[in-house]
Amino acid sequence: MGTHCTDCLESPAICCGRCSATRCKAHAFEPGDRCESCERDYADEAPTRRSAKLIFAPPFAVLVGGLLFGLMLPVTAGGAIGAAVMCALACAATISAGVGACRLVDRSARALFLRQHATGLPPARLLAPRTRLRLTR
Ligand SMILES: [Zn+2]
Ligand SMILES: [Zn+2]
Asked: Structural domain of residue 103, as residue ranges?
């Protein structure tokens, strides 16, 4: 943690969009990334995201697979080959739906993270005037 060099502070080339830490050209982070400590915060949330995936992905996958299975049942009820194809398709749809749900969790978490601003969090803004009011009384 901390600053890398004086250039990071005195002649910054890039500014973290989340905590407004600055970096010089040599220490600049990738566009679309945040500073090291913010990226570490994001990495720390990985177990939370994994549990979110475990909660959301299986029911969603079962729903999609089951829906497809139900939709295609009347069409392929006749032949054994048709049933096998339908089963394979439903399985593939179930898996891809699960993977898709996991990706969605990742993508929305990343978008949320990039939109975060440590200085502009609503709870901090709301609490400040209230505590000040209580202190003056
Ligand atoms: Zn630097
Ligand atoms: Zn940052």
From this structure: 39-115
At residue 52, the pLDDT reads: 93
Q: How far is the CA of 111 from the centre of ligand 2 (A)?
A: 15
- Sole residue written with tokens 């978008």: 111
In a domain, 83, yes or no: yes
Q: 2: left (phi > 0), else alpha (psi -120 to 50), else beta?
A: left
The pTM of this model reads 0.66
Q: Which ligand has the minimum distance to the alpha carbon of residue 38? A: 2
Q: How far apart are CA 109 and CA 105, in angstroms?
A: 6
Instruction: Assess if residue 68 is contained within a domain.
Output: yes
62-87 pLDDT, tens digit each: 999 999 888 887 776 667 787 888 88
**Across-strand partners of 23?**
14
pLDDT less than 50: residues of the chain: 1, 121-128, 130, 132
Does a structural domain hold residue 133? no
Q: How far is the CA of 19 from the centre of ligand 1 (A)?
A: 17
